[in-house]
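Go through this:
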Amino acid sequence: MGLTVRGTLENAQGRPRSGAGRPRTNATPPSDDARRDIIEAAARLFRAKGIAGASVREIAAEAGLQKASLYYYFGSKEEIVHAMIEGVLTPALAMQRRLGRAALSEAARLYAYLRFDVEQLCAAPYDCTWLINHGDLNDPQMTAFWADRNKLVAWIEARLKRGVDAGEFHACDRNMVAKAMIAATEYSVTWAERQDAARIVATAEEVASLLVRGVLAPGRNLNALRREAAAFNHPV
């Protein structure tokens, strides 16, 4: 959960990304992306009232739309929640795949991913960690999102294992460390200065450095792997 996050503004139902769409009310000035407006409006109301406490009518009004117009973009309140979570999970999984193919050391690969994840989470217009924790886990789509989140953990575990084998990392409880790293990236959104793009980048670099430094094998140079990772172009 500014940044244009892949997956946030489109969904499997093929609903419109942006454009004029359905009529707006006069309450909120129109923008060129009604879906994003709805997501941001929903995020504000979910934070204030909870997911169950915010009605579709209230979300529509907050976004400057009639209730019927909101349904042109999202079929239900649950679809809005799903779009929010997909919007930060999809790019994270895609980045892991890209890094898996890159010619990098395991340490640089891990650093580049952690930096990316903090940056994109902090730049999102909502706190997706809060959404995941408060979502209805009986929802099959939410269950699928949890499975995808577990893939993020498994990828980090694989980096740690290969890094230990290559002498880049010291031995550790890989599952525990991987979970701690994911938690650290996710919860950075709760304290980071998210309105300042430069501070987001600095925060991402510092958090990634702190996490990787904790597992680096003796004699490994953090600045060297940061330079290696910097050569990897990571679009956000």
Notes: The chain is about 60% helix and 0% strand. The first helix runs from residue 34 to 49.
